[in-house]
Amino acid sequence: WQYHATLIMHDSGWLVFEFLSESAMLDTLGGGPYAVYGRPLILQVMPDFFDFSPPDLTKIPLWVRFLNLPIRCWTPLCLSKLASVIGKPLYCDAPTHAKSKLSYARVLIEIDVLGVLPDLVSVQLPNGSTLGQQVLYESLPRFCKNCASMRHSTSSCKDSPSKRKLSSSDGHTTASPTIVKSTEAPPPPSGSCPLATPLAASLPKVTSPSPSWRLPSPGP
C-alpha cells in the first residue's frame, strides 16, 4: 500500500501495523487484496483489549460484493441480513455508506472458510417478489479443509481421504481411515490495524426477521 506504517511483531505471530493517521488506515483496510510472498495478508481493525493468543485461521474477514443490489436494500438492516447469511457482518465501505457506487454494495464479513459460501442468496422483497442476489467474494484465499492450510486447496491436498491408501500384504489397496493432521508450519496470521474505527458504518448481525424485508423461509 502507499501509506507508511510502523510494523510491530508479536511473539504469537501477529503483525500490528500502526499508521500515522486514521484516514491512511481506513484507505489501506478498504484496499487490497494484499499478499506477502504470494500468501494472503488479511487485515482487520484491532479491537480494544485484543487477545494475542494464536488465531483461529478458519475465520477471516473478507470483502464481499452484492452485485446490482436494489437501492431499497441499501440500508444497514438489509445489508446486515444479507451478510448474516454468509457470516458475521462487520462494516460496509465508504462508497456503500454514501451510495456513491451503485454497481454493488461492499461489506466486510467474517467468514468461516470451513463452511459453505453461497454464490446466490434468495431475498424476499417488501412487494412479495423474490430476488436471487448474486454474491462475489474478493480475493478468497486458498484454504484446505482437510489440514487447515493456506498453502493449497482442498482438491489438491495430499492428505485427502480419497488419496490416502494403504498397501496390504496381498497386493490390494484399501483406503486409510486415519485422519492425518498437517505437520507443516502454520501460515503467518493476519495483520491488524491499531485504530478501532469503523470504515463507514458498522453492521450488526441480524437474526430476527423483519416484516417488510426478510429472507425466504426454507421449504418443507
TrEMBL record:
Chain intervals with Polar residues compositional bias: 168-181
Record InterPro entries: At4g02000-like (IPR040256)
Region (Disordered): 152-220
Domain of life the protein comes from: Eukaryota
Protein name: Uncharacterized protein
Native source species: Populus trichocarpa (Western balsam poplar)
